[in-house]
Amino acid sequence: MTETITIRGKGLYVEIHGPQDAPPLLFLHGGPGGAGSYEFMKGQGDLLSKQVRLIAFDQRGVLRSEALDEHDPLTLQDLIDDCEALRVHFGYERWSVLGHSFGGFLATLYAHRHPQSVEKLVLDCPALDFDLSAKYMLKKSADEFLKLGDEAHAQQAHDLREADLSPKDRFDQMVTLTLALKEHRDKLYWYRPVPNYFGNLLQTSGISSEEWGRTGMHVKKIMQDPLLFTSLLPLLPDLQCPTLLLRGESDSTTCDIQTAAVLRDVKRSEHLLIEEAGHVPAIEQADRFAEVVTEFLLRP
């Protein structure tokens, strides 16, 4: 079932799969912006919904949700308020939340600010500290440059990793530097890269180019929120809900420091590494991903 629901003055595209009486799970996509909820639901909509009531939405201003203009405000708090308003709209007292990458950052903030609303938390290759994630991506990038014999760019990645920069400056420069990997950049995200994966995703989605283009305004506004570049690691001891941290074997976002912090500071936390997967285990190892998430959610 799909529908557009007006939440706090804007239409949000919402997709729902699974039995009405199954445990509800809210999915928060990565990005910021990214492919909205489309990519995840394409890979997991039928799998996770066998025993879970899976609810996903394109975040405010993204893809199939109503477009934002220059005058529309947008902060991380707006996205959190949207999550809570959707819970109230659907009449759930509590629900579990699964956040991928940036969505893991958002899910953690939501669980921290609305602990009474979140039953369980699944963090899928999350970026809980954008500076640590940028440094980890730079380390992985240096390795890829060296494999290509590009010692100059490998040294740039090393120097940028060690430089005394603000988290936002390091992140912005990291994104620019990784573009020099060209087609090899996919190796930062995939265990086994598929040529032209995202191009094919866009072409076969049936979603208009205008809708894909909406994401730019969302990204512009969220990247201006200083909270995005503030580490969430100090908030972890306050989380009360059972938490599952998932990482792909070759993921380049969730470094060991972030993983250790979750396991040390979240009272009821566990960690699982999904083999032969990178940053998107929900796609590369779809059956395994659905299996472990479902088992965690249904566990008493």
TrEMBL record:
SUPFAM superfamilies xrefs: alpha/beta-Hydrolases (SSF53474)
Entry protein name: Alpha/beta hydrolase
Span of the signal peptide: none
GO function term, MF aspect, one: hydrolase activity
Domain of life assignment: Bacteria
Alphabetical UniProt keywords: Hydrolase
Protein family: Belongs to the peptidase S33 family.
Domain AB hydrolase-1 span(s) in chain numbering: 23-284
Organism field: Tumebacillus amylolyticus
Gene3D superfamilies per the UniProt record, alphabetical: alpha/beta hydrolase (3.40.50.1820)
